[in-house]
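HUMAN: I'm a chemist; might I ask for a sequence paired with its structure tokens?

ASSISTANT:
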Amino acid sequence: MEARKPDQEAARLEALRQYQILDTPSEQAYDDFTLLASFICEVPIALISLVDAERQWFKSKVGLEVNETARNISFCGHTILSNETLVVNDALCDTRFADNPLVKFDPSIRFYAGAPLIAPEGHALGSLCVIDRQPRELSELQKAALEALARQVVAQLELRRVSARLAQALNQIKLMEGLIPICSYCKGIRDDQGYWSTVEKFIKQHSDVEFTHGICNECLKKHFPEVAEILLEDSK
């Protein structure tokens, strides 16, 4: 049975994109989590699965060779519908999964437990899951440990996102610290490609600053003396 999409699917996918993690190479920091999950839960397969629009992609894996599977047959597509850990003791006895190709064929899933990876905004990005080829149960201690590891996976993802934002901010600072050619007459700014633009456009391109416009008192007196006389008199 294919899982329904979460209520805020577009926002969830955008949150996943912001981590810039999809299709990146394997990393020891994440591989440590799947290794621990496999050991603690005593299963041959453990995955960090991120649920994309049409696929589930594995950032880290133990006991499995493939890098991704279709989302419409994924167990993790069901896991992201709740903040609670999904435990399937015997997939052949669960109507949601009994006819699933991942159950009937390789890797022949019978047991599955997935702790959702909940981003700070509340979106479930995927799961840290453990899999066995035979029915089994997960103890409360194992379940608690799996959930603790899932929280640490999210913490690692957050470190990645913050680091990327800091790097971007530093690049912007370095750009602003450099010599910027400004026209002596119109005060336009020349970019690295030799094109001239307004100060507002240049700063918007390199920061999140938004502009509003007004007229200072001196310009008001110079260009609109009649209005200045009224407004400035009232402000005294």
The mean pLDDT is 86.
